[in-house]
Amino acid sequence: MMVLVALGLGACRPLGVLDAITPVADVPRALDRAYAPGPRGGVDLYWPQSPAPGTPILVFFYGGNWRTGDRADYRFAGEAFAGRGYITAVPDYRVFPEGRFPRFVQDGAAAVAGIRALVAAQGLPADGPLILAGHSAGAHLAMLLALDPRWLAAAGLPRCGVSAVLGLAGPYDFLPIEAPDVRAVFADAADLRDTQPITFASADDPPAVLLHGTGDTVVRSANSERLAQALRSAGGTASLRLYPGAGHSEIVAALAAPLRGVAPVLADADTLLRAALASPRPRCS
């Protein structure tokens, strides 16, 4: 955690400073595209040079305790995945108080359902496999969309349309909710079990890649460990990587070019996602 403390990044502080210390990469982009009306309905797109048909599309949801976050602060993440060969989308979504559960999940579903059209509008191939990804609260959002089929179905997209899901330091199994600020986010849920991605672990889930630091005191790594075990026990597929001593913000900060020596998060995510995409999946009709 010492590197991030030196940069002024606490466990839950915004990570926008990483863009300031990360040189702008030679990555094509289209900013401020809209997947929904309103100030939180925008998305930024990043892509590799000359993407071929079948290039994977990765939708990355940032974290912020379901209360903060802005896609403009995550250029470093968009460029990182684009540099690895993914067409990458970083959408905004409503946050508390407007974004109480399930509204932020509905926003995420709308972003995912509309992403191929936005990619195609840039003249890019939009036929590649779809990956959902996120950090912290964004990982919770990505995992809930991937594992609970109701949200994407309501937005017109079958769950089989998701080929893999990547979670960085995500909360997936956190009942009972003890923190008052988190309880407020989920207070409208009729059944709190529906807010937990682990509830929906099944053999039909897309392959999951779970990356977490053992030094994370904000979201304990047991969240990823328990979800990996639940998915495997249900007949699903989960790859788990734990980084000894790494903290909550370090996992996502390690995507930024100047901090990739902190932990091999980007390389591991790429390797494990490529392996997941290569595994047989049911035909999506």
TrEMBL record:
Keyword Magnesium: no
Domain of life of the native organism: Bacteria
Transmembrane residue ranges: none
Residue ranges constituting the BD-FAE-like domain according to the UniProt record: 44-231
One function term, GO molecular function aspect: hydrolase activity
Keyword annotations of the record: Hydrolase
One Pfam family named in its UniProt record: BD-FAE
InterPro entries: AB_hydrolase_fold, BD-FAE-like_dom, GDXG_lipolytic_enzyme
Gene3D superfamilies found in the cross-reference section: alpha/beta hydrolase
Protein known as: Alpha/beta hydrolase
Organism: Plastoroseomonas arctica
